[in-house]
Design brief:
With 184 residues, this protein is α/β, with parallel strands linked by helices. The chain has one domain: P-loop containing nucleotide triphosphate hydrolases (Rossmann fold, 3-Layer(aba) Sandwich), CATH 3.40.50.300. A 7-stranded mixed β-sheet has the order 2-3-4-1-5-6-7, sandwiched between helices. The longest helix is centred in the last third of the chain and has 16 residues. Magnesium ion binds next to helix 1 and strand 3. The site of guanosine-5'-diphosphate has 18 residues, from helix 1.
Length: 184
């Protein structure tokens, strides 16, 4: 089975990093150097080192087992790419929403877009060195997630950790009756 999934989230949350970490093919990216023109719209509080931004999509592929191959599309988190985002999301089964716990509110827009499109999602909190140590249940409340929406933590740079996040999503999409996996 071939499954198309989105890896969605705001700027600099780790979408490209996660796809790099799990893809068995050389990931395909479109990144552009950020310019002054985007300075007022791309809010970079806490991520000042970021010098590129995804203006279109990332693409990677991951074989989970002989029956399941994931096609991963990293989708731009900025509102001005919404039309492109809707195109990329066509045919997707669901999405992994990446969240940075230092700026939770930045992920609401992507979750709203997914809900408007009727796409199911799981949420993965990508941990950065200075991320606050917030209990997962507190994050669930702060993100206003439905009780059935999987919520895990991950390190997008780490293949196993990122795969755990994707597995939580795939279980949610394909095997909704199975209990959610524990946070990785
Ligand atoms: N410490 C840490 N840094 C990360 C992690 N994920 C991404 N980064 C870094 O954060 C920056 C933004 O990541 P990127 O994947 O480009 O974000 P994107 O805009 O969502 O595609 C890059 O410099 C990454 O190396 C993580 O889990 N931990
Ligand atoms: Mg990117």
């Amino acid at each position: 089975m071939l499954v198309k999934l989105l890896v969605a989230g705001p700027l600099a949350v780790g979408k490209t990093t996660l796809i790099d970490a799990v893809s068995e093919t050389k990931p395909w990216h479109t990144e552009e150097t950020m310019t002054r023109a985007g300075a007022d719209t791309d809010i970079l509080a806490g991520v000042q080192d970021k010098t590129t931004t995804t203006v279109a999509i990332d693409f990677g592929r991951r074989t989970m087992d002989e029956d399941l191959v994931l096609y991963l599309f990293g989708t731009p988190g900025q509102k001005r790419f919404r039309l492109l985002w809707e195109d990329v999301s066509r045919g997707a089964l669901g999405a992994l929403v990446l969240v940075d716990s230092r700026r939770l509110g930045d992920s609401f827009e992507v979750m709203n877009m997914l809900e408007e499109q009727g796409l199911s999602y799981a949420v993965a909190v990508n941990t950065f060195p200075d991320s606050p140590d917030v209990p997962i249940d507190t994050l669930r409340v702060a993100l206003d997630l439905a009780p059935t929406t999987p919520l895990v933590t991950c390190d997008a740079r780490d293949t196993v950790s990122s795969l755990h996040a994707l597995i939580a999503l795939v279980k949610h999409l394909l095997l909704p009756s199975i209990p959610e996996v524990s946070p990785c």
